[in-house]
Amino acid sequence: MMTEQGRVLSALLQGAFICQVTDEEAWRFLKSRDNAAKLEPHLTLLNRTLSTTAEGEVFFASYSTIGEQERKVLTQQFQDTASNLVPLIEWLLLVQQANESDMPITMGSAIRLNELQGSIEDTPAYGEQLEKISRYRMFGSTSVNVDGQLKQVFKRLTELGYLIKPNPDKQIYLGTGKIEHLYETLRFIDETEALSLSEQAEAAVSQGNLI
């Protein structure tokens, strides 16, 4: 039977963003400095180290040193993330507007799918926005109705790790730590807006494995 240390290590090496929302046991394990320190030798063997975002509330594994191969992987990951920013930002704005909220979606934010659907169906402009968002390659919806479009968008966001559905019997989703990581990526791009995408990717790699 795998130990908790082994389970957490395996999740990190698979690219998980561990937070209180996605995996509270693993998150509590990593919040202990002693436990985190015990993982480092194992991560170091694979050229990884434990990194955090959202003021230490989200944990993930990043490369310790950047060689040519790691640089290629990270640059591609950054460019893939950047290509998805427009649909992600438009989705975040739509949810905030439809929920009539002053606060953006963050880690732990609850999104009630039925309420969101009702708001979108009552406002034609929101319906048009959703249809546009759902057609992006990232989501790939072919549905012509709000219900189908929303379900496809939320399915993909859950698959990509931005949302989690704690109870399969309830249409309630929670934002995860990966959303916090997305905001950090957005801040970085904003700070380097004068650079081209390839230059931003190089800068992200050199500034401590943002991705």
Written overview of the protein:
With 211 residues, this protein is mainly alpha-helical. It has 2 domains: 4-63, no CATH class; 69-184, no CATH class. Helix content is 58%, strand content 10%. The chain is built from 10 helices and 5 strands. It has helices at 4-13, 24-31, 33-45, 68-83, 85-98, 113-122, 124-135, 146-159, 177-191, 197-206, and strands at residues 48-53, 58-63, 110-112, 163-164, 172-175. The strands form 2 sheets. Strands 3-5-4 form a 3-stranded antiparallel β-sheet. It has a two-stranded antiparallel sheet with strand order 1-2. A hairpin with a 7-residue loop joins strand 4 and strand 5 (172-175). Helix 6 (113-122) crosses helix 7. The longest helix is centred in the middle third of the chain and has 16 residues, at 68-83. The radius of gyration is 18 Å and the shape is globular. The model has no long low-confidence stretch (mean pLDDT 89).
